[in-house]
Specification:
By secondary structure, this protein is an alpha+beta fold. It contains five helices and ten strands, in the order E-H-E-E-E-E-E-E-H-E-H-H-E-E-H. Helix content is about 30%, strand content about 25%. The longest helix has 17 residues.
Length: about 190
């Protein structure tokens, strides 16, 4: 099921406010550009497929919707303060709409207090070799950007830090952005050799 991207499937309550530059923001931008170079967030038209985030005490910072990871800057990031799954609303600060997978990140951060970074990417080699390498995979394919997709991931999340979203992409998680990034690169290298 290759669904055409139409943007976020939830309402964003956006407080237009420029985010403050800091070391964590710079590190997230570094990983966005690294994923772009490695082909882990491939181009789909003018933007990249994938989204990266890191946890803050009171929410999380995530890449914006329809952004080019090679050119991303602080204006392309959003601070998600809270999500309401019943109303399908995200309360956000920044100058852009958050990624369409905001609810996926939110559900994982809620379930796994140990996870401080979530990197969601797309790579054909990883999807093709996942079964051979016994990488945990969601049982059912669900549409992007939906609560159903997030709940499908929660079914296999447990303590797994690398998960395949069936016929979609991958999630790499860690106690830091460095850990999440290095895990994704490690799996990518294994899949390239397998």
């Amino acid at each position: 099921m290759k669904e055409k991207y139409t943007g976020p499937k939830f309402k964003t309550i956006l407080e237009k406010k420029k985010l403050s530059q800091n070391q964590e923001i710079r590190e997230l931008i570094f990983w966005c550009k690294k994923f772009d170079k490695l082909g882990l967030t491939p181009k789909e038209g003018r933007w990249s497929a994938g989204n990266l985030s890191f946890r803050k005490k009171e929410g999380f910072i995530i890449t914006g919707s329809s952004k080019d990871m090679a050119k991303i800057n602080i204006e392309g990031l959003a601070f998600v303060k809270k999500c309401d799954s019943k109303k399908k609303e995200a309360h956000v600060q920044g100058l852009t709409l958050p990624s369409s997978e905001t609810f996926l990140h939110w559900f994982i951060y809620k379930k796994r207090k140990d996870v401080k970074a979530i990197f969601h990417g797309h790579n054909k080699k990883i999807l093709e070799k996942a079964a051979k390498l016994k990488i945990v995979q969601t049982k059912k394919e669900k549409p992007y950007g939906t609560i159903q997709l997030a709940k499908e991931v929660l079914k296999v999340l447990n303590k797994n830090n690398f998960i395949i979203l069936k016929n979609h992409g991958f999630l790499s998680m860690g106690k830091s952005m460095k850990e999440a990034g290095k895990l994704a690169i490690s799996v990518f290298k294994k899949c390239s050799k397998a």
